[in-house]
User: What shape does this take?
Amino acid sequence: MPLVRTAFADHIGTIALDHYDKRNALSRALIADVLAAFGAFRKKTARAVVLRSAANEKVWSSGHDVHELPKANVDPLPYGDPLEQLMRAVKTFPAPVIAMVHGSVWGGACELIMACDIVIADETASFAITPARLGLPYNAAGFLNFISRLPLAVVKEMFFTADPIGAERAERVGIVNMTVPADALEARTYAMARTVAQRSPAAIGAYKEAIRVLSEAVAVNPDTYEYLHGLRRAVYFGPDYQEGIQAFLEKRPPQFRRVREPRDPLGQKRDGARFPRIP
Ligand code: YXS
Assistant: This one.
């Protein structure tokens, strides 16, 4: 049973997340169906793709399928993770991907929205990036999807509080292009898609790829890369991540304890530095 519904008309593809029993959690299986739809629309040379929820419910997507996250001591968001593959598929699709948002967007689904080219929401929409609730370390590509789109102070507020930002403020800070009344959302989204589909697909394809390359042009030398990776390792090997995942699965609030003195792999107490030395 496919976990997405698709449609194609007037050069416009539609991918509708359709697994509301699990609040459209971005599971490996659901992502595989979304990636297959993008592959089919690439063959049809779609000029725009609308990414939406099939259900007109209070949740658009609840983010990464937490049951598919490692329980501890393993990088939870490696390069090959299906959700990371989905982000790259959206960003490299040769035509604009327009997110149509009714309802709340959580965790990795919030980053998925950031990876889309255009976001049209209604007044029921809200956006929360929630790794801090799980004690989960975020990756550089993920941060860049936010930093390249939003003011730093908003990125920090979202990551440090893990609280939702409502539709009206989401439009003000740039999470969405526009917020429209719920009864106008579908019409406004497809009107935008039709306009895009009337323009030059060759030019727009080149614009999208050029903007992607330029927006990702961040020079990180090997030392800095290792430093950033060290920051993540310290978290996913740490007690918070284990407790965060366990608490979610047990449906209880997490109890994050004081950070234990980090020990190097030989178990030697280090000089109290909580993170690897800055190169
Ligand atoms: O218990 P059953 O079998 O009925 O299933 C329940 C939930 O377990 C399931 N479900 C999920 N399953 C896997 N992964 C999820 N993210 C997830 N979210 C929900 O869906 C069924 C209905 O859930 P329920 O009863 O809670 O629905 P609700 O309508 O009362 O509440 C909807 C939500 C979205 C407010 C609530 O489900 C929720 O808070 N979900 C978790 C949102 C979240 O924290 N997402 C972040 C996941 S981690 C992630 O995306 C990244 C790795 S990161 O952490 O970096 O952002």
Q: What stands out?
A: The domain at 222-279 is CATH 1.10.12 (Lyase 2-enoyl-coa Hydratase; Chain  A, domain 2). The pocket of (2S)-sulfonatepropionyl-CoA is lined by residues 22-23, 25, 59, 62-67, 106-108, 129-131, 133-134, 136, 138 (CB under 6 Å). The beta strands are 4-9, 12-17, 48-53, 59-61, 97-101, 104-106, 118-122, 126-128, 165-166, 178-180. The mean pLDDT is 93.
